[in-house]
Amino acid sequence: MFEADRFAARILQEGNSGYAGFAAARLLQDAPELHERYGAKALAGWKDNLSHRLEEISIALDTGHSEFLMADIKWERLSFQAREFPESDLAMGLDSLACVLGESLPEKAQKSVLNLLDEARRSFDTPVLPTNSYLDPAQPAHRHAMKFMQSALDGDVRKAVADLRSLATGDTGPIGVAQDIIVPAQREIGRMWHNAEATICEEHLVTEACLQALIAISHSCETKPANGKTVMLASVAGNQHDLGIRLLALDFQLEGWRSINLGTDMPAKEMKAAALKYQPDLVILSAALSVQLPALEQAVACIKDALAEKAFILIGGRALSGLDKEARLFGANATGTSLEQARDIGQRLLAGMNPG
User: Fold this and answer.
1) Using an 8 Å Cβ cutoff, are 290 and 319 in contact?
2) N or C: which terminus of the chain has fewer CB atoms within 10 Å of its end residue's CB?
3) Which architecture characterizes domain 140-218 according to CATH?
4) What pTM value is reported for the model?
5) Domain 230-350, what fold?
C-alpha cells in the first residue's frame, strides 16, 4: 500500500459529503435534463449516489483492490438498464466527480484517485448484460424453489413454508432444502428485483418466506449430540443480509455445535462482548458490500483483541468475491464463500487440526 493511496483514502472519507454535494450540483448544472428524469429529489439522490461511489473508491485505495469498485459499477449499470435510465447518467456522474476532485484534492492525493475514476469511466466501453434466471426447471430442487416462490408471491406463505418443512423431514433433508431450494429462491428474487422483474414488495414477501422456512425447518430437525465446540456468526455493521449465516448456523447446530448467531448489522464492540462471553472456537463473519469492508476489518480486530489467537476467524460474503486468498488483508484466518468450506474448517477444528 503506497502512502499516497492511504492519504487519499483518508481525505475522501473525511470530505465525502462535501465532495459528493459539489459533484452532484455540478452534474445537474451540466445536465439539466436530469432534473426532469429524476424528479424533485434529483440533487439529493445523486449526492447519495456519488457519496457511495466515494466510499467505494476510498476502500479500493485502502485495500489495493479496485475490483470492488468495478463490480458495484457493473451492478448499478444493470439496475439502470432494467429501470430504463441511461447508463450515460452514471458515466456523467463519474465525470463530475473527476472534475471536482481534480480541482479540490491535494496534489499528493490526486493521481491515485483520478486513475481509479478513469478506470471506472473506461469500464463503460464494455457492454454489460442482465443475468439469466438462477433457476433451472430441469433440476428438481429448482422446480421446488419455483413452486415455493409462486406460493409466496400468491400470498400463501403458510403453504410455501409447509411444503419445504415436508421436504426437510424427507429424503431432501433440512440442509438440502436450505442450500438447494431456499438459497436459490432468495438469489432469484434478488435478481428479479434488480432487473425490474419484481417489485420491492414482492422481493420482501419472498425474502420473509425464505426466513420463515429456514426457521421452521430448524425447529423440526434432530441434532447430533453436543460436541463441546462453539461457533459464533454475524453480519458486520451495515450488512442487513443474514440468510447465509442463518444457513451456516443451522448446519453447525445440526452437527452438535453450540451455534451463536448474532444476526445482522452487528457493531464490532458488541461482537467483542459476545466473543468474551461465549468464547467461540470458530467465528464466521459476513460482508455483502465493499463499503462494509472497514467494518469487517474492525470486527476481526475486536474479536482478536477479545480472544487473542484462541478462535479461528472465517470471513465471507459477496463483498469478498474473488478474494479467496486475501484473508490477511482483514486480519482473518481464511476466506470462504460456501457451506462446504465452512464445514471443512469445522471438521478440522473438531479433529484438533489446524484448519489453515
Assistant:
1) yes
2) C
3) Orthogonal Bundle (1.10)
4) 0.81
5) Rossmann fold (3.40.50)
